[in-house]
């Protein structure tokens, strides 16, 4: 995996530039929420944001991350009451004027926000099961898109959002992909909808981060299947623990770049009228939660 990381993390790569920019403006977002907040914090990071935003403008002038970065700079400026020593930020913003949108800095959250979602979220977690048999039809792409959009709210390291979602509804392609996976015996031939989640290894900005994409993909995929369930779409995780040669085969079948590493298989479909599922008993809380006083 280290060799794959080295091959796919070039400094001039557009995706890598975007991940660096996200990482830096997220640092500033976090700094704006800290108590007490240090005045004029993150000067070096601010410079990096300005330089990388300028570079992104030259490479991809309509990229959404440009407005995201400038929004953060604007809120940083406002938090410091447009102090004269920050005129260089104001000058940059004025040269690259965008419509400013409300940020999560500051976003005020209080306990009442959880009242309306506590019971429904618990119900989603309690009722969602791994389902391997589905109605014999394609799932509406709009419903899948809505589920994916909810899943994009998943936390990720420095908000880099390294995940990509590949929806396959071509049965010939599905069969090729399932032939590489060894956990679909007995039901794989009936799968009409398949998702493969990939993680972009060029989101990892140092070698020690190169395994982070599996964690982020895992968090994202869990939210995705729960979101699918809330939209009346059944799903099942299919194990993907293979060598790089199998990853290469997936990349070739789906025509995806080498920096997108396959991380998760998910079969999905509409629930049948009566579906038998595994009970899958859980360990007791006493064998799960350890309290350290």
TrEMBL record:
Keyword check for Manganese: no
Pfam families referenced in this protein's UniProt entry, alphabetically: Nitroreductase
InterPro entries, per database record: Nitroreductase (IPR029479), Nitroreductase-like (IPR000415)
CDD domains membership: Nitro_FMN_reductase
Record carries keyword Transcription: no
Keywords linked to the UniProt accession: Oxidoreductase
Domain Nitroreductase: residue ranges: 125-179
A single GO molecular function term of this UniProt record: oxidoreductase activity
Superkingdom assignment: Bacteria
Family that this chain belongs to: Belongs to the nitroreductase family.
Record's protein name: Nitroreductase family protein
Natural source organism: Providencia stuartii
């Amino acid at each position: 995996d280290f060799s794959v990381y080295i091959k796919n993390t070039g400094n001039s790569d557009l995706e890598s530039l975007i991940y660096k920019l996200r990482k830096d403006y997220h640092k500033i977002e976090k700094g704006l929420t800290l108590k007490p907040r240090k005045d004029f914090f993150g000067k070096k990071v601010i410079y990096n944001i300005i330089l990388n935003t300028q570079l992104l403008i030259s490479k991809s002038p309509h990229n959404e991350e440009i407005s995201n970065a400038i929004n953060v700079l604007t809120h940083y400026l406002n938090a410091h009451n447009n102090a004269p020593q920050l005129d260089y930020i104001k000058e940059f913003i004025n040269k690259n004027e965008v419509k400013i949108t409300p940020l999560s800095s500051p976003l005020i959250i209080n306990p009442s926000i959880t009242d309306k979602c506590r019971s429904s979220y618990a119900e989603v977690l309690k009722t969602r099961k791994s389902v391997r048999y589905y109605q014999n039809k394609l799932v509406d792409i709009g419903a899948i898109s809505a589920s994916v959009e909810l899943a994009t709210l998943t936390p990720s390291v420095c908000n880099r959002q390294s995940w990509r979602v590949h929806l396959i509804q071509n049965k010939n392609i599905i069969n090729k992909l399932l032939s590489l996976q060894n956990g679909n015996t007995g039901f794989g031939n009936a799968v009409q909808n398949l998702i493969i989640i990939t993680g972009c290894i060029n989101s990892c900005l140092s070698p020690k981060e190169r395994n982070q994409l599996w964690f982020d993909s895992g968090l994202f995929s869990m939210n995705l299947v729960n979101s699918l369930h809330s939209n009346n779409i059944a799903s099942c995780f299919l194990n993907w623990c293979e060598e790089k040669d199998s990853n290469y085969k997936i990349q070739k079948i789906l025509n995806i770049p080498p920096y997108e590493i396959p991380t998760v298989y998910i079969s999905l479909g509409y629930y049948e009228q009566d579906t038998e599922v595994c009970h899958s008993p859980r360990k007791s809380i006493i064998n799960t939660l350890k309290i350290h006083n």
